[in-house]
Amino acid sequence: MKKKIFITASIFGAIAVIAGAFGAHALQGKLKPQDLHVWDTAVQYQFYHVFALLGLAGLSRYQTRLIKDCYYLFSVGIILFSGSLYLLAARELIGWEWLNVIGPVTPIGGVLFIGGWITMAVAASKNK
User: Fold this and answer.
1) How many CA atoms lie within 13 A of 4 on its CB side?
2) pLDDT tens sequence across 1-15
3) What are phi and psi of 82, to 5 degrees?
4) Which residues make Cβ contacts (< 8 Å) with residue 69, sequence separation at least 6?
């Protein structure tokens, strides 16, 4: 499980760096300031949860169900939270105005993040 968590964190980390650079260079002047702020929020939260996954990898030697649950909560949370924000921020630029309908996905990702943090705390408290 530790290897899987590290690989996932590495992939999400690389995507976050690419998205951050893309937002800072390619999207400047192409997105409205509020949309660029949404893009930056997606990058920030993706990075926060990459670091959470790396911390989780340290606990993964115990191979508990809680570790696995936490891994999925953070991973799916990144996809739903940050992924939906990337799409919402860029919807006008790519001409997909209909993407407004995915707005409710973002808070679901946020709830998964919260669940991941709580699950990680429980997993850490149960390990000796």
Assistant:
1) 11
2) 788 999 999 999 999
3) -70, -40
4) 119
